[in-house]
Every structure is written in C-alpha cells, then in structure tokens.
Design brief:
Number of helices: 29
Helix content: 40-55%
CATH topology of the largest domain: Hypothetical protein af1432
Strand content: 15-25%
Number of domains: 4
Oligomer: single chain
CATH superfamily of the largest domain: Hypothetical protein af1432
Largest sheet: 5 strands, mixed
Number of strands: 20
CATH architecture of the largest domain: Orthogonal Bundle
CATH class of the largest domain: Mainly Alpha
Mean pLDDT: 80
C-alpha cells in the first residue's frame, strides 16, 4: 500500500471530519485496495491509487464521509467482483446508492462517441436531480483521469475522453459553481484536443510576461497600496487567464489576441458585502472603468448561487484588468460551488422547490427530453460557459435570468412554454416591441398572447436559448407527424408489395420488436421522415433478403450530403446566398420547380418567406453516416503587409487540415492587404477551429466568414 497517498487522504479528511468518520474512510480504503489488488493502470501504478486520488480531491472540497467512502469504492462494482449488496452490507444504504449512481454514469460513458454526448449529458443531469453528490464524485473521478490522460497510448481514445470532458463535464462543473475544477478540466482537455493552439497562446502569454516583467505583482502592489490608504482590509490574488478561456474568447467573440481586454484577472477578498462595494467605489474613483464590463452579481446572483462584483478598468500602468470583489463567504461558494452550501447530513434529495440554484437543471432536463434526435441533444445539452447573463423582470417584479443577446421570445418561453407558443408581441419597459428585440439588463417585459397564435419558424432565427429552439422544432415536428406517418405507410406497404412480401399483423409485430418500438405509427413516421429505409425494415425480419439495387444505392449515398427531414426522393440544393456547410443550423424552403433550397438559419433572404410558414421544412444534417465530401467555405482576411504573413496563414490552414481551393487578393495597400480564401472543410466546427487558429497569428488584423 502507498502509505504516503493514504496518509495524505486521511490527514486531509481529519481537517474537518470526526474520528468515527475516519474509521469508515479507512474501512473503504482497505476494501478498495483488496478489490483492485490485481489491477493496474496504464501508468503502471496499482489501480487502487486512482480511488485514493479521487477521494483526496473530494476532501479538498470538504464533502461528507459517505461521499469520500463512495469515491474510494466508485469503481468496485463495475471493475471487480464486489456487488452492491456487499457494499450495502458493509457500508450502508447511502454509500451503496451513491456507488450505484456513479456506476450507472460509468456504464454509458464507456460507450461514448460524439453522437451520444447529448444523451450522456441527459443521463448525467437526471442523476444529478436525484443526488448531487453522485455528480461531484464523477467530476472528481474525471478530474483525476484527465490528470493522467497522457499515459493512454491510443490517441483516438484520448481524443474521445477529452472531447467528452470539454463538452459535458467542464460545463457541468461550471454550472455547479466548481470553478477550479472547471478550469482544470477545460485546460487538460484543451491540451489534448488542440495542443498547437494552446502552445501558441502560452507563447504569447510568456512574451507579454517577459515584456512587462512582474506585471501581476506590480498591479497587485498598486491595488494593495490603494486599499490600505482607505483602510480596507482584504487579500488580493492575481493571475493570467487560462489558455482555454483565451482560446474561446478568440473563437466565439471574433477578436484577435491583441483585442482581448481581460488577459489578467484580479480577485479582491474582503470581510463583508459592504466592503466589497466600498472597495469597488475606491477602484472606480481611481481608474476609469469600462461601462459595459461592470456586473453586479451580489444584488442579482447567478443561477448557481455565485455572488461577486465584476469590473474591468484601465488600471495601473495603463493596463486593462478585470477585478472581482467577493466577501469571504462569497469566495467559499465561488471556490466550492454547490459543496459550499449543500448540507449532506440533511435530506439528500435535491428538489426544485427547495432551492432556486438548481432550477436550471430541471429546466435543462425538460429541454433534453423534448429533443428528437442526437444532433438536437448535442446542441441543446451544451452549456455555453462563456455566455454572460442578463437579468430582466416580469411586470410583477420577478427576476428572470437569460443569456446575453436573449430576445423577447426567449423571455416568453422562460415564463412558460404555453406563453411562448401563444405570444404575438412584447411590451418592453411599457413600449410595444417586436419579439426579436434584444433584451438589456434591467428591462421589464410583458408578453402579449393570443389563443389563435402559434409558433413561427422564423423565431428560431433570433432565439438564443435551447428551450425556445427545441420547443419550436417540437411544434413543427408534431405538425408534420401525421404527414410523415401517411407517407411512411405508403412507402413501406408499396415496397413489401413490390417484393412480394406480406405486411400482416405478425410481420408488424416482428418489425416493432426488431426496432424496439411500441407502435407501428412510430415506424411509419421514421420511414416518412427518411430516418429508416424500407430496405432496413425488410432485412430486420428477412436477413437473407437480397435487393439488387441496394449496393448501387449505398455507393451513391456515400457521395452525397445527406439531410434529415426531407421526404425520400425530394431534390434539394445548398443556397448560394449563405453557402451552408455541415454543422450550420439550417432550414429548408420549398421552391416550385426547384425542390428544396437549404439556407442557414441566419440567412437574410429568409425574412421574405416569413409569411409563408407552409414552405418551411425542419431539416438537419444527417450525421448517422460518415460524410466523405468536403464543403467549401469562404473567409475574408485582412493581413499586415509584412514578409511571410501570407505563408503563415496558409501554413496554419494546412496544419488544421483545411484545403485551400482558391485565394483572391481584393485590396492591397502599403500597410495591409485583404484576401478572400476558399477553404474546403469537413463541417462548421472544423471551419471555426481554423478561424480561431488564424486569429492567433499576430499578422492577422481581422477575419470573418464570408457567405455567398
């Protein structure tokens, strides 16, 4: 046994646990060691080192004894001969339930692929709504696995684990307020997913640090001096932002590295809320602040309970710096999140009525449950960590939290889905405004409804929240269900008849069993929508069936971009006005004599069809099969006119697996020149990564995607 690891764990637990609690932890240590005694990790270390490290991480956030014991036992049921009954007998029902919860999560995580991220996230949230400690144990488990990810030799496996961590676990840690865990998970994932971008950012940060020697210490000294003069007792921490945080701001805010205003962040910890406001006032009197960067999360806390004051000022040495002001109590919640205020010796179940901090979890589960396919699940399950929040009010003065750039339609659905479905307009600050109006902090909104109203497909274009997008899609999906059922029935009946097979009750029962469906209408809908083919149905019950045209069909399909939501045989083309590529949110417009024109949801031309909802089709990219085709996308780049600048751009594109099909010089001046580059990419995310990597090139002055 590694006595150093054991001692570190016990000593960490003793900082806040009673002696009787330590006995249970020691018992769990011995059980885990014995259960895992023949197993080793890829690092060569005994496997039981892992549960020891997981438990140690849990003690750092001061979780209860049962959680620590469960962290030690979390892999025993899945990976050893130990059973839940055995754990229940030795450690009690509560520990057994926690271990069972983590085991269920592990069972689906082991089978993860990109298409199942949304489904996995749904299961995680469902587990969280039962007992949050299950998620905290799983997050600790994932954190240690990420710290040792470099020992895995299989690069594809490493990438899958890193992607799942980035898309699911890091955002979940953020929403639970586990900021330290969130940043660790993000950076460790980033190191695997995009090591070149991370290395480039670290080089830029190192350069800035060397250029402005000891800038962090210098600013911290100036702030400390300022507060001492005003008799404010506080502690001040300062740091450079994490590479992943910087990368996402470059990627999502369409800015270059030089345009980042908050590379440095400082934290002022005071003894009280009153002193937070006093310290803020002192800073604002001394340094000019950037108005749109000030946020008061004390009077309007975030949904996860986070409270603080945030501001960005032109600080000492004329540097833009972000400063956060927290009391000691606020800092505890900021560091430990849910673990700071959840009392585990009280009833363990989280209920929405008990605390508002977890209402987002229940709302998100509702959104996920309304999603129809994996693509929607992925889209709706992602929590945008980098979206700021705004706070608006109902006519009665109730506070509603929404993401930045949210519109009146987002507000309507935040009140209730039925209010959203029936809304026709909004009064914002008592003035009638369109539903697409972007809301601002402090707005008071009244939604106007009509019983005759129904959702418009155009709403998805300006809606921000996943709840609205999901609700709109569900409405139009339900509307089309009968049509798809009739079409699917006709297609399947005709195919069986053509191949001289009888589609009787017995056959239908076999088909339903083969597809794990309850009702034949569900199958008809899938066929009518194009998600299932008649050939796959007949092969379910007649595996020996040989359809002469099937091979030819499969070969042809590999050379096409496939879409979901189109009736079989319906022709379509990608609209030249917006040039959609796989991964863009798209909509189909039925055009007489042409078929279906596929547009991006933000295409300007869509407004001309707002009065013809019957021509709109709810379509999406089909990601069930691999797409062998590359899509062409266009970017416009303004470069500094320096030797080698164009070479750097083309090199970055090549390193990120982009294929340049055309370059056109549009403007050339003494200092700058503008070029239009056509790049062949796999999908929208591939393009987004290329664009973000280009923004890190110091010679790139500006860059944007050009449609058309």
């Amino acid at each position: 046994m590694n006595y150093q690891l054991v001692n570190d764990l016990i000593n960490s637990a003793k900082n806040y646990q009673d002696d009787k609690d330590i006995v249970l932890i020691e018992k769990a240590i011995n059980f885990a060691k014995k259960a895992h005694q023949t197993q080793f990790r890829q690092s060569g270390e005994p496997y039981y080192f892992h549960p020891l490290e997981v438990a140690k991480i849990l003690t750092e956030i001061k979780l209860d004894t049962f959680s620590i014991a469960s962290g030690l036992l979390h892999d025993t049921v899945e990976d050893t001969s130990a059973t839940l009954d055995e754990i229940k007998k030795k450690f009690g029902l509560e520990v057994a339930n926690l271990v069972e919860g983590v085991t269920k999560i592990n069972n689906f995580s082991l089978k993860v692929n990109n298409l199942k991220l949304g489904e996995n996230y749904r299961k995680l949230l469902l587990a969280a709504t039962q007992d949050l400690r299950v998620i905290l144990i799983k997050l600790a488990d994932r954190l240690h696995n990420m710290r040792t990810l470099h020992y895995i030799n299989d690069e594809n496996k490493k990438l899958k684990i890193a992607l799942e961590t980035q898309e699911i676990y890091a955002p979940l840690a953020q929403r639970l307020g586990m900021r330290d865990w969130q940043e660790q998970l993000e950076d460790l994932s980033f190191e695997t997913i995009n090591p070149e971008a991370r290395s480039s950012i670290l080089d830029r940060l190192e350069y800035l640090n060397s250029r402005d020697e000891n800038i962090i210490d210098s600013v911290r000294y100036e702030l400390k001096k300022l507060f001492l003069e005003e008799d404010i007792k506080c502690s001040i921490d300062g740091r450079l932002k994490s590479p992943y945080s910087i990368w996402n701001k470059i990627k999502n805010k369409d800015i270059t590295f030089e345009q980042l205003s908050d590379i440095m962040a400082f934290r002022v910890i005071t003894n009280s809320t009153r002193e937070c406001y006093k310290a803020l006032g002192i800073v604002h009197r001394k340094f000019p602040y950037i108005r749109e960067r000030f946020k008061d999360f004390i009077s309007s806390p975030k949904s996860n309970g986070y409270r603080a004051l945030h501001t960005t000022v032109m600080g000492p040495k004329n540097k833009k710096i972000e400063i956060q002001f927290r009391s000691n109590a606020m800092n505890q919640i900021a560091d430990y999140g849910v673990a700071a205020h959840w009392k585990y010796k009280d009833p363990k179940k989280i209920k929405e009525k008990d605390t508002k901090e977890y209402k987002w979890m229940h709302d998100l589960v509702d959104v996920l449950n309304s999603s129809n396919n994996q693509d929607e699940l992925i889209e709706n399950s992602k929590i945008n960590v980098f979206n700021d929040e705004i706070y608006v009010f109902t006519p009665k003065g109730d506070l509603i939290e929404l993401p930045i750039n949210a519109t009146a339609i987002d507000f309507a659905y935040a009140i209730h889905s039925q209010v959203g479905d029936k809304c026709v307009g909004a009064k914002i600050n008592e003035k009638l405004q369109p539903l697409k109006t972007i809301l601002k902090n402090g707005d008071q909104i009244e939604i106007i409804t009509s019983e005759e109203s129904q959702p418009s497909p155009l709403w998805e274009r300006f809606a921000v929240t996943g709840k609205v997008k999901s609700q709109i899609r569900r409405f139009f999906r339900t509307k089309k269900r009968d049509e798809y059922i009739l079409l699917g029935k006709e297609i399947l009946t005709s195919f069986f008849k053509k191949e001289n097979y009888d589609l009787n009750d017995s056959t239908i029962r076999q088909i339903l069993h083969g597809f794990n469906l309850q009702h034949i209408d569900d199958l008809y809908e899938m066929i009518g929508e194009g998600r299932v083919t008649s050939l796959s149905v007949i092969k379910k019950i007649y595996p020996e069936f040989n359809y002469k045209s099937s091979r030819k069909f499969e070969i042809e399909e590999k050379n096409q971009i496939r879409l979901k939501g189109l009736t079989a045989g319906m022709s379509y083309h990608l609209a030249g006005c917006c040039s959609p590529i796989k991964g863009d949110t798209i909509v189909g417009i039925v055009t007489a004599g042409i078929g279906v024109a596929v547009h991006t949801i933000d295409c300007d031309i869509l407004s001309s069809y707002s009065d013809n909802p019957e021509r709109w089709l709810n379509i999406s990219w089909d990601s069930s099969t691999q797409n062998f085709l590359l899509s062409s996308s266009r970017i416009t780049v303004v470069l500094k006119n320096q030797p080698g600048s164009l070479g750097k751009v083309t090199s970055v594109i090549a390193k990120n697996n982009g294929n340049i099909s055309n370059i056109n010089f549009t403007t050339r001046k003494a200092d700058f020149f503008e070029i239009v580059i056509d790049i062949e990419v796999r999908d929208a995310n591939h393009l987004k990564n290329i664009v973000a990597a280009l923004r890190l090139v110091s010679e790139v002055s500006s860059l944007e995607r050009t449609k058309g």
